[in-house]
Amino acid sequence: MLDGKTILVTGGTGSFGKKFTQMILDKYDIKKLIVFSRGELKQAEMKAKFDNHPKLRFFIGNVRDKERVYRAFDGVDIVIHAAALKRVPECEYNPFEAIKTNVNGAQNVIDAAIDKGIEKVVALSTDKAANPINLYGATKLCSDKLFTAGNAYAGGKNTKFGVVRYGNVMGSRGSVIPFFKKMKETGTLPITDTRMTRFWITLEDAVKLVLKALDEMQGGEIFVPKIPSMKVTDLAEAIAPECEHEVVGIRPGEKLHEVMIPRASSRHTIEFEDHYIIEPDYDWWGKENHPDGKKLEKEFEYNSGNNDQWLSVEEMRKLIEELD
Question: Does residue 155 form part of some domain?
Answer without folding.
Answer: yes
